[in-house]
Amino acid sequence: MTAMPPPGRVSVVLPTYNERAGVAYLYPLLVGALSGIPADLWVVDDGSPDGTAAVARSLDGDLPVHVVERTGTRGLATAVLEGFRRSAGEYLAVMDADGSHPPAVLPAMLKAVRDGPAEMAIATREVWSGDSPGLALGRRFVSTAGRWLARPLTRVRDPMSGFFVVRREVLDRAPLDPIGYKIGLEILVRCRPDPIAEVPYRFLPRIAGESKLDRGEVGRYLSHLGRLYRARASGRGVRLALRTR
């Protein structure tokens, strides 16, 4: 019989592709940030040729690491969904592996969903003191445009954020079928977590490697938005967000 995870466990899902430097950098920071919190790390790798999976398997510390290698399939959102399926944590955390999402923010996000009323906590670059020094001018423009296009769907200030914590039970409210890389937006719109906590953070420069955002990803994001707007119009569990801010 498989042992049940302790109550309150958080499973951190880290989708990767050519992120060996980022994984090695993040691991000790995650160990420190999650000290005293029941947690495990799920690295879901899309067949990285740089040996990311091997580096992840070599990690040794107080945070258990599980490595899932996918072949023939690529995509950040589907990698995250695979991590959700494989893991058993009561709470699910998602972050990028390039070092732009600081693990030190995780305790505040977890506190919001474990001890507070929030069903989902999002690390945002838009609220209070949050900013984004890690975004180059071109990325900043794309991110801003993407947020404005998604604004009618959710009241969250930074729906483009890929750094969040959500209660697993929230995901049972609707089937998830994202296109591209914005799994957080998919959850916000289809599962409608409420309330949502927004935690400010500094979006940091990547440790190594190059951004995966290209014209193809932009096109997939627009297709994803179109799908979400059509679902809202058809009334299948999606409605226009209340303008409370």
Descriptive overview:
With 245 residues, this protein is α/β, with parallel strands linked by helices. It has one domain (10-234): Spore Coat Polysaccharide Biosynthesis Protein SpsA, Chain A (Alpha-Beta Complex), CATH 3.90.550.10. The protein is built from seven helices and seven strands; from the N terminus they run βαβαβαβαβαβαβα. The protein has helices at residues 20-33, 52-58, 76-86, 106-114, 137-150, 183-191, 215-234, and strands spanning 10-16, 39-45, 65-69, 91-94, 120-124, 164-167, 196-200. It has a seven-stranded mixed β-sheet, sandwiched between helices. Strand 2 (39-45), helix 2 (52-58) and strand 3 form a beta-alpha-beta unit. The protein is globular, with a radius of gyration of 17 Å. 43% of the residues are buried. The model is unreliable at 127-131, 134-138 and 236-245 (pLDDT under 50).
Main sheet characteristics: 7 strands, mixed
SS-based structural class?
alpha/beta
CATH topology: Spore Coat Polysaccharide Biosynthesis Protein SpsA, Chain A
According to DSSP, the number of beta strands is: 7
How much strand? 15-25%
Shape designation: globular
Average of the residue pLDDT scores:
82
The side-by-side strand order for the widest beta sheet comes to 3-2-1-4-6-5-7
N-to-C series of helices and strands: EHEHEHEHEHEHEH
* Secondary structure tally, helices: 7
The CATH class label is Alpha Beta
Radius of gyration: 17 Å
List segments where confidence is low: pLDDT < 50 over at least 5 consecutive residues. 127-131, 134-138, 236-245
Oligomeric assembly: single chain
Named at the architecture level, the CATH assignment is Alpha-Beta Complex
Number of domains: 1
CATH superfamily: Spore Coat Polysaccharide Biosynthesis Protein SpsA, Chain A
The CA-CA distance between the termini, in Å, is 49 Å
Helix-residue proportion: 25-40%
